[in-house]
Amino acid sequence: MKRLIFTHVADIDGMGGAILSKLAFNNIDIIFCKNPSDLNSKLSENYDNSNLYNYDLIYISDLSPSRELLEKLLNDSKLSNKIYLFDHHETAFNAGLNDFSNCTVRVRKDDKTSCATQIYYEFLINNKFLEQSSILDQFVELVRLEDTYEYKKYNREDAHDLAILFNSIGKDEFIDRMINKIKNNINFYFDDYELEKINNKKEITIKEVEGFLKYLKIITIEGFRVGICFIKYEYRNEVCEYLINNNSDLDCIAMFAFENNQISLRSLRDNSSARIIAEKYGGGGHDNAAAIGLSDDLKDKIVSSIFGN
After folding, report:
1. Each residue of 105-146: pLDDT tens digit?
2. Alpha-carbon torsion angle 294, 299, 303, 308, nearest 10
3. Residues 234-260: b if buried by 16+ CB within 10 A, e if exposed
4. Domains in the chain: how many in total?
5. pTM for the predicted model, two decimal places
6. Which of 140, 188, 205, 301 has its CA 20 to 30 A from that of 110?
């Protein structure tokens, strides 16, 4: 049986989809996507060239296509029973994507925020594609804690360290190391090489963040005080943490990462500002962590509104 998964390239929740897929299936192709706009583009391209018909099952993890595109795919008789969606973003939930067959969009479970890796893991176990294990449980929970920003709530810096490791060694090595770790260890831990990479990255991070914030500009959007800065995408959470730790009076930080064609938004207060602002510009996500895909047109409009006149 031939399978395909579309998953997020930019964080460890997207990596979780790739890692679990490689552990569960002998034959699966992976297409990595930067953001929902990129997912829409790649799904459409693979539909228009009939490549999707070459697969028996198609999974989508940690990103959701537009409702219009998803409906189009599921109305195709050759694809209607092949496509499975696993997402956790409130925007996808509010768009009613759960209404479609084989689509699971879940924001919370047992009073904890969900992540796509967790939802996909449950699907793989329930369908006996993957056997549950202690180390897999640990890995999935680390991903969930980091991706939902609950690692602070539960004092689990090791979850954030997992993301730092990913940013340090990159996608391919991260996937290979996690698969090897899961296959060969009973409990999840960082080896000496990984700890060195994590600690080295932490030393670099503070200088990078302070450099980004030197050029911070403050504007008002929807009544919120919003800080605007330009960053490298991998440092989006560290910028947020730095501002919170230094008692910033901002409601939200909007971080432009042009190499990833995305604006990452983080609420610095519990006020849903990140999601509200993201949705204003056609993006979405969670109340306190959201994003906007940067089309060339939107990029020009937003930069002009900030720096024009």
Report:
1. 999 999 899 999 999 999 999 999 999 999 999 999 999 999
2. -160
3. bbbbbbbbbbbeeebebbbbbbbbeeb
4. 2
5. 0.86
6. 188
